[in-house]
Amino acid sequence: MTRDIHPGRLLGKVVVVTGGARGQGAAEVEALTREGARVIATDVARAPGCRRLDVTSESDWAELAAEIREAHGQVHGLVNNAGVTWRARVDDVRPEDMARVHAVNVTGPLLGIQHLLPLMRPGASIVNIGSSAALTAHYPVAYTASKWALRGLTKTAAMELGHRGIRVNTVHPGFIETDMTASAAPAFREVNLRETPLGRTGTVDDITPLVVFLLSDDASFITGAEIPVDGGFTAHGGAKAISDALRTDA
Ligand code: NDP
C-alpha cells in the first residue's frame, strides 16, 4: 500500500519495506512515511496497511516489481527487514531448519535486490537488517549462520552495484524489544543487559533513524558499511566481564 506524503528527508522516494507488519519493520514504515517517503509496506502476514509478500517467493517479488513499475516507474529504496529466528543449537539443529532460516534471512534479501534492481536508478539505497549475531558467535546457529551470510551478500552487492550508483549497507541491531525477543528466555535478556555497556535493551526507535539516514541522500558516499546499533554489545569482544570484575569505582 502507498502511504501519504509529508515533507522530509525522503520526500517522494518510493521505498519497499519487508516484514513491515510488526516490530522493527512497522516502526521503519512509520518513520520513513514521516520523512516523506511513499512506503510500500509488505509482510508475509496479512496486516492492515501491508501488501502481502513472502520474501522467499520469486513470484511475489515479480508481482510487486510489476506493480511498482506500473504505479511509480522506479524504486528508490529497499529495506530487507523481514527475518526469522530459530533457537536450536549446533547439536540439534536440523538441515531443514538451516534451509528455512536461510531462505528468509538470506535468499529473501537477494530476491528483493534482484527483482527491484531493474527499477533502481543511481542514488537508490538498499538497507539490509543484520544482527549482532552476525558479528559474534551466538547459540541459535541457523540464525547466526544466516546473518553472517547476509553480511557476505551485502558486501558483494555493494561492490557489484556501486558502478550503477546504488548503495547497499547493513544495520546490525542488538537486543531490540519486539515480539522476536519477547519469545526469548528471561536469561537471554538478563545476560544481554549485563554485556551491554549502555546498560539497557534497545527499542525500535533506536533503529529507525539510521535506516532513514542510510536511505537518504545524506548517506550518498556510504556503501558496504556495517553499523551495529547495540549499545556496545559487540564492541568489547567479551572484555566487559573482565572490566566489571576489576572495577573499583562501582
Ligand atoms: P519480528 O518477529 O517482530 O518481525 C518480523 C516480521 O517479519 C514479522 O512481521 C514477520 O511476519 C515477518 N516475516 C517473517 N517471515 C517472513 C517472510 N518469509 N516474508 C515476509 N515477511 C516475513 O522481528 P523484529 O522486528 O525484531 O526483527 C526485524 C529484523 O531485525 C529481522 O531481520 C531480525 O532478524 C532482525 N533483528 C532483530 C533483533 C531483535 O532483538 N529484535 C536483533 C537483531 C536483529 P509474521 O508475523 O508472519 O512472522
How would you summarize the topology of this molecule?
Layout: E1 14-17, H1 23-34, E2 38-43, E3 51-52, H2 58-71, E4 77-80, H3 95-116, E5 125-129, H4 141-161, E6 167-173, H5 179-182, H6 186-194, H7 204-215, E7 226-229, H8 239-246
Parallel strand pairs: 1-2, 1-4, 2-3, 4-5, 5-6, 6-7
The structure holds NADPH dihydro-nicotinamide-adenine-dinucleotide phosphate.
NADPH dihydro-nicotinamide-adenine-dinucleotide phosphate (NDP) binds next to α1 and α5.
Task: Describe the structure in your own words.
- By secondary structure, the chain is an alpha/beta fold.
- The protein contains 8 helices and 7 strands; from the N terminus they run E-H-E-E-H-E-H-E-H-E-H-H-H-E-H.
- It has helices at residues 23-34, 58-71, 95-116, 141-161, 179-182, 186-194, 204-215, 239-246; strands at 14-17, 38-43, 51-52, 77-80, 125-129, 167-173, 226-229.
- Helix 1 (23-34) links the parallel strand 1 and strand 2.
- The longest helix is centred in the middle third of the chain and has 22 residues, at 95-116.
- The radius of gyration is 18 Å and the shape is globular.
- The model has no long low-confidence stretch (mean pLDDT 96).
- It binds NADPH dihydro-nicotinamide-adenine-dinucleotide phosphate.
- NADPH dihydro-nicotinamide-adenine-dinucleotide phosphate binds next to helix 1 and helix 5.
- NADPH dihydro-nicotinamide-adenine-dinucleotide phosphate (NDP) binds at residues 18-19, 21-25, 43-45, 54-56, 81-84, 104, 129, 131-132, 173, 175-176, 178-181.
